[in-house]
Backbone:
């Protein structure tokens, strides 16, 4: 892709017609791009191309006329930029299926947040492994799909190893209501997104348990310390961790029931049993990332007590009150 594309003929492919994928498809269309949005379900394809809605996944959204839904991967992949907006744990299987139809040099923008279970691979690494001819990139930051779709002011970060590619993606998707900052710190951007999801569950537990605003502030601040330790170990830049995709996304996810991770924690904090919130947990990336995040941190010698407590609660090893007691009983130490 030529850096800094400005032509309206630029074609964007979006893989995944969930809430965030649908919102990003509309973003690209509003920026003057042609968009093919891939969905697995024929009914979703028909709804988007017919009444121009996606009512179950993004209620209230009106799909832009420049967006065409398709059930055929190859149609969405015949694009100048491909946004991959599928759950983190499904990323590898989708990219395996897509690899043969992605043109060499195409920016492949991962928009999920997580770490692969079983392998501990970061998502850009999966993109490199499965589609080596493409150019991996990551888009992340404090953004709810409903806010994006309503045209509310939103700012995120896009990262690629080549700054010109990151800048070009930002230029292709940016609009007055959707601002993209660019960086070459791929690892920092994806670590912020993956780690904050787990920490948001902890913040939700605190809120659901009605432990007060002081406790919420404490868990968010100490959670950021964990995120920073983890990111720094894996080469993330401090300014990335302090930016939109790190601290910014953490603040958003730790403060609103719109966050699926916060909502899951909130339900647990209210005393709901794990089996009662399992459906909600299936939609919360943090619930699927917690175990591998803790395993990765432990192997690297990184202290992450809040993430460990979340993992223990989700694994049924301790209950919420035991997790809180363990965190508060930790030895006094310098900040």
Residues:
């Amino acid at each position: 892709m030529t850096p800094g594309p400005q032509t309206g003929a630029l074609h964007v492919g979006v893989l995944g017609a969930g809430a965030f994928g649908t919102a990003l498809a509309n973003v690209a269309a509003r920026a003057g791009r042609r968009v093919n949005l891939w969905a697995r379900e024929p009914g979703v394809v028909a709804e988007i191309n017919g009444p121009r809605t996606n009512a179950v996944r993004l209620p209230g959204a009106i799909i832009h006329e420049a967006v065409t839904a398709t059930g055929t991967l190859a149609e969405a992949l015949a694009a100048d930029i491909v946004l991959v907006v599928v759950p983190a744990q499904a990323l590898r299987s989708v990219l395996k299926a897509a690899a043969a139809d992605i043109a060499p040099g195409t920016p492949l923008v991962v928009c999920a947040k997580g770490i692969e279970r079983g392998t501990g691979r970061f998502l850009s690494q999966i993109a490199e492994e499965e589609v080596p001819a493409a150019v991996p990139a990551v888009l992340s930051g404090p953004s709810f799909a409903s806010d994006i779709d309503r045209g509310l002011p939103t700012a995120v970060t896009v990262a690629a190893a080549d700054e010109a590619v990151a800048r070009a993606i930002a230029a292709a998707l940016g609009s007055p209501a959707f601002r993209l900052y660019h960086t070459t710190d791929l690892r920092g951007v994806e670590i912020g997104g993956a780690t904050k999801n787990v920490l948001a569950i902890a913040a939700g537990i605190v809120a659901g348990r009605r432990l007060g605003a002081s406790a919420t502030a404490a868990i968010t601040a100490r959670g950021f310390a964990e995120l920073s330790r983890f990111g720094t170990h894996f080469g993330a830049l401090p300014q990335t961790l302090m930016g939109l995709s790190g601290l910014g996304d953490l603040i958003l996810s730790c403060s609103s029931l719109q966050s699926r991770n916060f909502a899951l924690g909130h339900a647990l904090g209210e005393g709901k049993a794990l089996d009662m919130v399992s459906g909600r947990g299936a939609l919360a990336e943090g619930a699927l990332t917690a175990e591998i995040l803790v395993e990765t941190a432990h192997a690297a010698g990184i202290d992450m007590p809040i993430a460990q407590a979340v993992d223990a609660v989700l694994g049924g090893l301790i209950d919420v009150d035991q997790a809180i007691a363990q965190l508060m009983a930790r030895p006094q130490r310098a900040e």
